[in-house]
Specification:
The chain is built from 17 helices and 14 strands. It is of the alpha+beta class. The protein folds into three domains: about 170 residues, Orthogonal Bundle (4-hydroxybutyryl-coa dehydratase, domain 1); about 140 residues, Butyryl-CoA Dehydrogenase, subunit A, domain 2; about 180 residues, Butyryl-CoA Dehydrogenase, subunit A, domain 3, CATH 1.20.140.10. The protein has a six-stranded mixed sheet with strand order 2-1-10-11-7-6, with no helix packed on it. A four-stranded mixed sheet has the order 5-8-9-12. It has a two-stranded antiparallel sheet with strand order 3-4. β13 and β14 form a beta hairpin. The radius of gyration is 24 Å and the shape is globular. The protein starts with about 30 loop residues before the first helix and ends with a helix. The structure holds flavin-adenine dinucleotide (FAD).
């Protein structure tokens, strides 16, 4: 396992990146090349029936790695540096999502950083590192919560702040895996896990714990440095569930940790032919733990289901994650509006009532997300740890409705795109013996043939391709099962005053 001594290695400064005199460059944000170098380790990644030797050159994975590397480089540029990073008390420049918000202005600064990160992929690289950084910041600044853990001499709060500093000062890219697989829905619904498949502690030693089993799912897993293994499903506070109750983080390259990837959607096409999947394949993987050793220093909760059940809510990690999500969904929704308007203009249908009505529906969804985000940020307030959080209600609403909005946006893109989404000759057809035909037959009133094909290939990658379909599935589920999120929302909603008004009226009758 890497340790904090890695902090002492001074990174090289690649060309084209602004060098800062004011900060201690031994620590803090990394360059893309440093990130890629870190991925070249012993990680056990499986895809297409074989183990991957090096994710940074693996066809179908390398595109995503290169894209994320370019985003990390952006952190160093004059254009973005002040938006997406901050200088900490040691003079180290770190990612903004790690900054503990001590004022409303800090919350707003964090929001601007999330939005900027999301714009780099127009929301199509869903799991940018700021998502996990936001949650880690919240856990590390809610130490009194973790300090309630009572296992032996373990200092869970200190373990968390050390991990936060390690990840922050080394600009580590994190993924997480929260959900146990189940073999029987009734068993899962009754709050019990299957010891055949669910991740559980099988051994405890003076040095740490040994875990065995599987977890669903780790987006970005193969391209991350570290994985957080936290509880999200509610655990019944029952003796049987103690082996399933824990939170820890380990490097992806930990012995015994295996990531089983889905098929890639990046078929190594050109950016013209596959504008999104050639760039933003972030990969999802089932995570298998074969007797994986986790040292105590990396354990944050253990054997206490009641603590695990409260973790994301009581630390407010879930609110900070919702904030990142609302900002990134706004960038994504704006992009969808942009594509739809470009299609309408290209076809001359931007004067058509039906077309405008459909696009207006997407515009209204986009503006709803913006309004909810604005409302939450404007009503930021101090929490029980002395940190500032956006108001939960509006961004909780956003995270509950966006999974329904996004599939509707895609449906509208399919309705407006129709057969043009299939009229997609390849880039090569513009320079082979078909070039005259494609120039002739693919033109539109307001677009040259090649530009039309480029636009519809983009729409295809959003609304039709394997990449696009996975995006829709991601939006439906990545934050958890919709029914469970809605149930939590219902529980938190301030219902009493509204029911009181009903009672008042009925009392008058
Ligand atoms: C693309 C993608 C990326 C993901 N990335 C990650 C990741 O990085 N890390 C991670 O930890 N997880 C990730 N997930 C997993 C995600 O957290 C789960 O998909 C989600 O929590 C739902 O759990 P499940 O898939 O087991 O579905 P299930 O819980 O089996 O749900 C299936 C359906 O049943 C419904 N349902 C479930 N319980 C109930 C109930 N009690 N009553 C009524 N209906 C119910 C659900 O709403 C859903 O419609 C990802 C998922 C996807 C699709």
């Amino acid at each position: 396992m890497e340790d904090a001594s890695a902090l002492d290695t001074k990174p090289e400064t690649p060309s084209g990146i602004v060098e800062e005199a004011t900060t201690n460059k031994a620590h803090g944000i990394r360059t893309g090349e440093q990130y890629l170098e870190g991925l070249r380790d012993d990680r056990e990644i499986w895809t297409k029936g074989a183990r991957v030797a090096d994710v940074t050159i693996e066809p179908g994975m390398r595109g995503g790695a290169e894209t994320l590397a370019s985003f990390l480089d952006n952190q160093h540029t004059e254009a973005f540096r002040d938006t997406v990073t901050y200088v900490d008390d040691d003079g180290d420049r770190c990612a903004m999502a790690y900054k503990v918000p001590k004022s409303k202005e800090d919350v707003l600064a964090r929001g601007r950083a999330y939005y900027e990160w999301a714009k780099w992929s127009n929301g199509m690289f869903g799991r940018t590192p700021d998502y996990k950084n936001a949650s880690l910041m919240a856990f590390a600044s809610a130490t009194s919560f973790l300090a309630q853990g009572t296992k032996g001499n373990a200092d869970f709060a200190n373990n968390m702040t050390s991990f936060y500093d390690y990840a922050r000062k080394n600009d580590k890219v994190l993924t997480h895996t929260l959900v146990n697989p189940s073999v029987n829905f009734q068993q899962a619904a009754s709050g019990k896990f299957s010891d055949k498949v669910a991740l559980q502690v099988v051994k405890e030693t003076d040095a740490g714990i040994v875990v065995n089993g599987a977890r669903l799912l780790a987006t970005l897993g193969p391209l991350a440095d570290e994985i957080e293994v936290f509880p999200s499903t509610l655990l019944r506070a029952d003796e049987d569930n103690i082996p399933f109750a824990f939170a820890f983080a380990i490097p992806i390259a930990t012995p015994g940790l295996k990531l089983m990837c889905r098929d890639t959607y990046d078929h190594e096409k050109s950016h013209f032919d596959a504008p999104l999947s050639s760039r933003y394949e972030e990969m999802d993987a089932v995570v298998i733990f074969e007797n994986v050793f986790v040292p105590w220093e990396r354990v944050f909760m253990y054997g206490e289901p009641h603590l695990c059940n409260q973790a994301f809510n009581t630390t407010n990690a879930v609110i900070h994650m919702m904030h990142q999500v609302a900002c990134s969904k706004l960038a994504k929704a704006e992009f969808i509006v942009g594509i739809l308007c470009s299609i309408a203009k290209a076809t001359g249908r931007d004067k058509d009532l039906y077309t405008k009505g459909l696009i207006a529906e997407v515009m209204q969804m986009t503006e709803s997300v913006r309004a909810m985000l604005f409302s939450a940020e404007a009503q930021s307030h101090e929490d029980q740890y002395g940190n500032f959080v956006p108001l939960r209600g509006p961004i909780d609403t956003s995270r509950n409705v966006f999974p329904k909005m996004y599939p509707r946006m895609i449906e509208i893109m399919q309705m407006l795109g129709s057969s043009s989404l299939m009229a997609t000759p390849a880039e090569a057809d513009f320079s082979n013996e078909m070039s005259h035909d494609v120039q002739q037959y693919f033109q539109l009133t307001n677009l040259e043939s090649k530009d039309r094909v480029a636009l519809y290939r983009l729409a295809h990658d959003v609304a039709i391709s394997g990449f696009g379909t996975r995006q829709a599935l991601y939006e439906r589920f990545f934050f958890g099962p919709p029914a469970l999120m809605a149930s939590g929302y219902y529980d938190l909603y301030d219902k009493e005053p509204l029911m009181g008004r009903v009672d008042d009226l009925l009392a008058k009758a």
